[in-house]
Amino acid sequence: MMNTRLARPSRIVDINRIPELDYIRETGDTIAIGALARHAAVKSSPLIAAHLPVMVAAYEWVAHAAIRNRGTLCGNLCHADPASEMPAVTQVLGAEMVLNRASGTRRVPATDFFTGMYEVAAAPEEMLTELRIPKPLSGTGWGFEEASMRKGDFAWVTVVAMLRLADGHIAAPAVAATGLGERSVRLEVVERALDGAVPDAVRVEALAREVASTLDPPSSPSVDPQYRRDLFATLLPRVIAAAVRRAR
Ligand SMILES: Cc1cc2nc3c(=O)[nH]c(=O)nc-3n(C[C@H](O)[C@H](O)[C@H](O)COP(=O)(O)OP(=O)(O)OC[C@H]3O[C@@H](n4cnc5c(N)ncnc54)[C@H](O)[C@@H]3O)c2cc1C
Question: Does position 222 have pLDDT exceeding 90, yes or no?
């Protein structure tokens, strides 16, 4: 943002010298990621690979090695680029943001954290010190798909899903997407339609087309709204099929 002169801050707080914030650890049923954990550390963490493989898969699409070596997951979330992958991933994972200010701490669910384009629910005097992610239950399947101009570029459309199967029926589906508006969103209309349903590829394709027709995605020089709708209608069935396969 500073490079493009979109931001011209008069003061910069450098958190690089607070090593206590550089961690990825297991705390009971939760994975905690500190503010200074770099993308590269999260991507290569055995703990993340064991419990949050969807995050590792998503990281294949986030920027390039040089950026991932320097940028942090928490910084990425606070930046809240509307085409960023990790907001959608944290939303399906049911993550919470731990926000600290001098007078105390509060937690904000990822579903409430992203309030608009480059806007989050953190006050100017608050810092995101930790991301807390509940470990998914065993048997949870996931899917992640993205379309962008080149791998490593910001996404045109990203769709991510997690679900379980109970007696052959879809249970607790969580679906989120980026590229459809000013921020990542959970797609409750899709989740409601899937919840309790028997996995059926034809039905999911019809649902994807129906939901796509109601979307009003933004236009940009490289991708028009109709193409984003078409991408969503293509990627959603792939993501659900992958999640069902992994849940079996
Ligand atoms: C060439 C390039 C390609 C990229 N491609 C992608 C991509 O494909 N996908 C993607 O998701 N991202 C992409 N990014 C973004 C990148 O992944 C970083 O996440 C992003 O630049 C944030 O980096 P940072 O951690 O250094 O945060 P900074 O740049 O230092 O901060 C970003 C913003 O968040 C605030 N902030 C940072 N940390 C905190 C905190 N702990 N608490 C409160 N506020 C905080 C800062 O004040 C600032 O407003 C790309 C970046 C570049 C330069």
Answer: no
